[in-house]
Amino acid sequence: MLPVHNRLAELFQEHLKGQLSDELGIELQQCLKVNADYCLDMNFFNNQLIEARKTKDVKWEADITAKMDWLRRTGKVVMQ
Q1: Where are the domains of the chain?
Q2: Nearest Cα to 63, choosing from 48, 42, 43, 44?
Q3: N or C: which end of the chain has fewer CB within 10 A?
Q4: What is the pLDDT of residue 19?
């Protein structure tokens, strides 16, 4: 889990208590954007991983797995 996910949960809890300030509303939108990008990137890699396993391409599978691990830890995509 990325730090942005913790902050997103905190902001959601504040939202449940009542109206968010404009500043916190902006921060919530930023967290949602980061989360959406993360999900899209992870789905992209998951689809590639499925194909790598279908074709039994062990090298490709290892490469994708490493990229997914990096994404999980940093929130950043490594494309090579």
Answers
A1: 3-74
A2: 48
A3: C
A4: 83
Instruction: Collect all residues with Cβ–Cβ distance below 8 Å to 42 and sequence separation of at least 6.
Output: 68, 71, 72
Sign for the pseudo-dihedral over CA of 30, 12, 71, 48: negative
- The one-character DSSP state at 56 is T
Q: Which residues contact 8 (CB under 8 A, 6 or more apart)?
A: 28, 31, 32, 35
Tokens of 51: 């194909």
3-17 and 22-54 are packed helices; what angle lies between their axes, rounded to 10 degrees? 140
* Conformational region of residue 60, where left means phi above 0, alpha means psi within -120 to 50, and beta covers everything else: alpha
Rg (CA), the chain: 16
CA-CA-CA-CA torsion sign (13, 16, 17, 21): positive
